[in-house]
Design brief:
Low-confidence stretches: none
Distance between the termini: 82 Å
Shape: elongated
Largest sheet: 3 strands, parallel
Structural class: alpha/beta
Strand content: 5-15%
Mean pLDDT: 90
Number of strands: 5
Amino acid sequence: MQFFLVKAIQPILQRCLGIILLLCLAWLWIILWATPAWAQVDTVNYNNANLNNQDFSHANLVGRTFVAAEMREINFQGADLTNAIMTKGVLLNANLSGVNFTGALVDRVFLQGADLSNAIFQEAIMTRTSFEGATITGADFTDAVLDRYEIAQLCKRAEGVNPVTGVATRDSLGCR
């Protein structure tokens, strides 16, 4: 009987030992090959800042954050805001012509009266953002996420072709 019990338990012990060995090897691999995450060297953000009438034209602002910033009549002409985060912002009468907002998060932003001509908003998330009275001639909204109401309003005045991407504004919005 004792011999039978040892024979029955032996495969279970071998499996457990195999699992423990595998876990030890995985842990060793993590310890030896893991590299620390390095903080981004240039991490300037503009959260809660008063940036009214500031000039950021042609600036490299990739990945920057503008949370709850006051940006009336700001000049972002030709700036690179790829993957930037802009939420709860006020950009009344701002100059965003030729700006690159590819992959950016533009949430709850007021762009009333802003110049968005020839801007690139590919794959941007632009929810609860107001474009009332904004100039969008030549803007590219390809694969951007916008509220249905805003798309309908933008389609009423969409015209032009983006000079960089070659995409018509109406096509990028899916206008009928």
